[in-house]
Amino acid sequence: MKDFYKIVKAMLLYMDTAEKPWHTFHLVAIALTVGATALALYIIKKDVTRGAHLVYVFTSAVMIIGEVYKQFCLTFCNPVPFYDWYYFPFQFCSTPLITFTLCAILKKGKLFDVLSIYNGTYCLFAAIIVFVVPSSVFTKSAGLNVQSMAHHAMMIIGGASSLVYSANKITLKAFFGAVGIFTLMMIAAEILNFVVSVISDDNTINYFFISKAYGPVFIQPFKDAYSHPFLVAMYYVVFTEIAGFMAHSAYMIGKRRRRI
User: Fold this and answer.
1) Rounded CA separation 72/8 (Å)
2) Is the model's pLDDT at 155 over the cut of 80?
3) Per-residue pLDDT tens over the stretch 52-76
4) Ramachandran region, residue 133 (left: φ > 0; alpha: ψ -120 to 50; beta: rest)
5) Tens digits of residue pLDDT in 13-40
6) How many Å apart are CA 81 and CA 251, to the nearest integer?
7) What CA–CA distance (Å, rounded) separates 234 from 241?
8) Are the CB atoms for 238 and 208 separated by under 8 Å?
9) Residue 100 near residue 60 (C-beta atoms within 8 A)
């Protein structure tokens, strides 16, 4: 068992210090993501429907493989294996594991279109935030850093492709469908924040960063200043407004191209 533990720990590739934002690793990740996104958009331009499906298959596969690696290593990297619920894959940026995979399976249809709008707005924006401010995902594990940046890179690649695919399909009804998906995800996150903290007696559970119990997060000043319901409502409204702006911008660009 000790040998197995050592092997798993070696897989995490621990470093002396945590990776720093805007240093070599981060800049290389940005460059690779920009290049891969450009390639994905080129594929989409050649064949929108088939291209979107291919991008979903690739990005969801990479994210699933990365998540399996992450969950396996974090569970068995200790002498006595245990599961840390903090890393359960239901953060905001974990939702593409569900939505991208569903799109890869569905291939096309109304649900595919609604999920694509969600992926191209909410998910894309969330991934961009992490790429700009990655300090919350950088650790002393080089393996986890690569997994995290690869995951968020797939979100950007798939999200940008989704937005281009959706440009000619965005309607108010379809956008509200995407809002509905985000709403369900937030409700599920709040339920999990409460239930998991009770069954595991662990107050560090903080899915979607909206847990009432968990304190030391980057939004702590806001948590101190406002009530929990108000903070969650503002979180919901801000993300939805930005998603709406992104969807509207894509729609207007698509409309202009159709006229040409």
Assistant:
1) 8
2) yes
3) 999 999 999 999 999 999 999 999 8
4) beta
5) 999 999 999 999 999 999 999 999 999 9
6) 49
7) 10
8) no
9) yes
Report yes or no: 124 and 159 within 8 Å, Cβ to Cβ.
yes
Q: Give me the helices (H) in 80-123, please.
A: 96-106, 110-118
Query: Which residues have a Cβ under 8 Å from the Cβ of 44 and sit 6 or more positions away?
Result: 51, 52, 55, 161, 164, 165
Answer for the pair 12, 144: CB distance below 8 angstroms, yes or no. yes
Burial per residue of 6-25, b for 16 or more beta-carbon CB atoms within 10 angstroms, e otherwise: eebbebbeeeeeebebeeeb
Closest by Cα among 117, 127, 125 to 167: 117
Taking residue 237's Cβ as centre, other Cβ atoms within 10 Å add up to 10
Tokens of 14: 């621990």
Q: Which two tokens stand for residue 111?
A: 């649900």
Cα pseudo-dihedral 207, 213, 215, 220, rounded to 10: 80
Q: Residue 142: enclosing H or E segment and its boundaries?
A: helix 142-166
Q: What tokens does 24 get?
A: 């070599």
